[in-house]
């Protein structure tokens, strides 16, 4: 039998860090005026960090007159290094009260110091616990981590999050300072969910910002030298634009004035497509698959992507590609717009229907997908399908705790009647006017947010017809 005393070991090592006077290493971190000196034990640092095992070799360090090891790390913030020492001595780190900038700095420092366990945990913490901050600081995070191959998980998280809802990022002022390699890898993605003319507008703005001598943003006053300078800046980016997704009016107003920066072979082919309505002859990037949009006021674009994946029976985090089905979502009902319209009559004969319901007091979101539609018959009947499902989100930011309940009893999947209500199953999700309920009736997998015997008040309802374009 092995007796373990980890708690007392951690306590004793922690006291060595805080109180011991037998240290033999002085480590100075930070830059003026924020420099701090830390005292540590070289044997513990060597044992815990492969970096310090090498750094404290005779070739790297210097000893003062007292045989004390002296070492400097100006590229690490003192607050970050204090966290690192706590980890090295105790194996514990509490990040709940730490500034997000320090957590990002801890990620980079732990990678440099070869603290693999700490590095992986901090990366996961930023993704899972600080995703909102990461989203608000994409430029800072990407510029900090993009050259580090070890940070690929966080890189992918940032890029995929941007692709889900790129317009706030691309239209922000910070976008103009984006690193060219990051921008290139972003624009080449098929899942960038944004209109192509917006990409073009802000690529031009980015190019102007990156090109010396183009202080005058009004290209009307540019000479040929100005255009050639911009063309050089944008040389690798122009082929990434899906010109065939830009309508002729926008092409005339927004692209034609920059004809000089577009390679002639591309410009001429695009002109031929517009003028003759022909297909591309050379290789153009296909339409971005991320541009499947649900124009909803209830859910966010990243939740749209999840629901589209559910329609295709894919996992929530599936990344769509050019081989996947393309859908069009046509808004047929919005309660705040249509007021007291008979929703049942509006839905009849519309084919596949996707419904969103926002609860009035909590902001929770419920909904359902009916792939066969409501028929509009006067008699009451159940319609059969194996493709329908119901779902819920905690709010319009929720992408982690969403629930889906797929149909279990296909013969009772959809209830069709002439009354002003829509029903999934035997009442698993039921909507009528300004009230709805989510019951566990067994026709669908149970939604934990549902509550038997309780009707919720509606804040907003939206319904879309779902058209398969392939």
TrEMBL record:
Pfam families (alphabetical): BACK (PF07707), BTB (PF00651), TLD (PF07534)
Listed SMART domains: BTB
Limits of the TLDc domain: 297-467
SUPFAM superfamilies, A to Z: POZ domain (SSF54695)
Top-level division of the source organism's lineage: Eukaryota
Domain BTB: from-to ranges: 23-97
PANTHER family hit by this protein: BTB DOMAIN-CONTAINING PROTEIN-RELATED, HL07962P-RELATED
Protein name according to UniProt: BTB domain-containing protein
Biological source species: Rhizophagus clarus
């Amino acid at each position: 039998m092995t007796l373990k005393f980890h708690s007392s070991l951690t306590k004793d090592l922690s006291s060595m860090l805080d109180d011991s006077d037998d240290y033999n290493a002085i480590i100075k971190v930070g830059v003026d005026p924020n420099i701090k000196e830390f005292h540590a034990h070289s044997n513990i640092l060597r044992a815990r960090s492969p970096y310090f095992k090498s750094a404290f070799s005779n070739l790297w360090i210097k000893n003062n007159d007292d045989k004390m090891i002296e070492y400097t790390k100006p590229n690490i913030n003192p607050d970050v290094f204090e966290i690192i020492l706590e980890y090295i001595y105790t194996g514990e780190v509490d990040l709940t009260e730490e500034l997000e900038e320090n957590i990002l700095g801890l990620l980079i420092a732990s990678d440099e110091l070869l603290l693999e366990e700490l590095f992986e945990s901090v990366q996961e913490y930023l993704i899972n616990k600080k995703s909102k901050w990461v989203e608000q600081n994409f430029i800072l995070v990407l510029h900090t981590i993009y050259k580090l191959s070890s940070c690929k998980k966080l890189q992918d998280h940032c890029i995929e999050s941007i692709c889900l809802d790129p317009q706030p990022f691309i239209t922000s002022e910070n976008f103009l300072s984006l690193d060219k390699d990051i921008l290139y890898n972003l624009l080449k993605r098929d899942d960038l969910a944004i209109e192509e003319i917006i990409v073009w507008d802000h690529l031009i703005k980015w190019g102007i910002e990156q090109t010396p001598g183009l202080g005058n943003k009004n290209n009307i006053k540019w000479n040929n030298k100005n255009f050639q300078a911009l063309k050089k800046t944008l040389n690798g980016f122009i082929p990434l634009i899906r010109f065939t997704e830009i309508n002729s009016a926008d092409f005339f107003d927004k692209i034609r004035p920059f004809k000089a920066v577009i390679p002639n072979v591309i410009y001429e082919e695009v002109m031929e497509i517009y003028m003759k309505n022909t297909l591309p002859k050379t290789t153009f990037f296909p339409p971005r698959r991320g541009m499947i949009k649900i124009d909803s006021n209830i859910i966010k674009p990243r939740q749209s992507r999840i629901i589209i994946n559910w329609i295709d029976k894919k996992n929530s985090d599936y990344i769509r590609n050019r081989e996947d089905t393309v859908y069009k979502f046509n808004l047929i009902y919005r309660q705040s717009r249509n007021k007291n319209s008979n929703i049942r009559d509006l839905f009849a004969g519309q084919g596949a229907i996707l419904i969103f319901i926002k609860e009035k007091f909590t902001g929770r979101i419920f909904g359902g997908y009916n792939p066969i539609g409501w028929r509009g018959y006067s008699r009451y009947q159940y319609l059969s399908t194996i493709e329908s499902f119901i779902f819920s989100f905690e709010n319009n930011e929720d992408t982690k705790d969403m629930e889906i309940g797929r149909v279990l009893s296909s013969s009772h999947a959809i209830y069709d009647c002439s009354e002003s209500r829509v029903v999934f199953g035997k009442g698993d999700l039921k909507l009528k006017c300004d009230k709805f309920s989510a019951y566990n009736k067994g026709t669908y997998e149970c939604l934990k947010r549902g509550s038997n015997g309780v009707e919720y008040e509606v804040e907003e309802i939206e319904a879309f017809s779902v058209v398969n374009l392939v």
